[in-house]
Design a protein that fits this description.
5-stranded antiparallel sheet; globular; Germin-like protein; manganese ion binding; metal-binding; alpha+beta; 218 residues
Length: 218
């Protein structure tokens, strides 16, 4: 009886290990396989240097102490602290970003294809939200005040708007060393080369002149 029980547990453990196996998460948009061993080779993420050569500078970044320049059309500025700024983040699966907002400044609808984001308001008042996936497309939103926290699930479209009359600041933690960002309007109307007007007019139910005007803005 004991032997049968142990065998059953072993089989369950083996089945669980097989069921939970998966490929490593992507750390960039794509990583095309190559068969030519003489070709330049890239990895999913970054190459690692000899750990003995690491210094404190590999694990630090001073850029978040400075306010971002919000003198732009959106009235916001994102200062990232990803593996591009902090080499020591490589393989660790985390990053940060500071977001500065002028009064009524906006971080427009966007997604992070590789990360969940948790945002903390340091100063000001923000209206934030995300939209669930099809077919519901449900908006989940609220107004945040200093010290409040809000989570944007990985891959979902979300936004932040400063609804106050003073500057606002937030810090975001992200669950990837390179979370990526896709700003919806820029991606759809500002792709290079441009998406066919026929595609966009049908998708958005807009006149071709309206689509052309939107494309010209991005």
């Amino acid at each position: 009886m004991v032997v049968n029980t142990l065998a059953y547990i072993a089989l369950l453990a083996m089945a669980f290990s097989l069921a939970s196996a998966s490929d490593p998460s992507p750390l960039q948009d794509f990583c095309v396989a190559v068969n030519d061993t003489n070709a330049a080779v890239f990895v999913n993420g970054k190459f690692c240097q000899d750990p003995k050569l690491a210094t404190s500078n590999d694990f630090s970044f001073s850029g978040l102490r400075l306010p971002g320049n919000t003198s732009n059309q959106l009235g916001s500025m994102v200062t990232p602290a990803t593996v591009a700024q902090i080499p020591g983040l490589n393989t660790l699966g985390v990053s940060l970003a500071r977001i500065d907002y002028a009064p009524y400044g906006l971080v427009p609808p966007h997604t992070h294809p590789r990360a969940t984001e948790i945002l903390t308001v340091l100063e000001g008042t923000l209206y934030v939200g995300f939209v669930t996936s099809d077919p519901d497309n449900r908006l989940i939103s609220m107004v945040l005040y200093k010290g409040d926290v809000f989570v944007f699930p990985q891959g979902l479209i979300h936004f932040q708007l400063n609804v106050g009359t003073t500057n606002a600041v937030s810090i975001s933690s992200l669950s990837s060393q390179n979370p990526g960002v896709i700003t919806i309007a820029s991606a759809v109307f500002g792709s290079k080369p441009a998406i066919s007007v026929d595609v966009l007019t049908k998708a958005f139910q807009l006149d071709k002149d309206v689509v052309a005007n939107l494309q010209s803005k991005f």
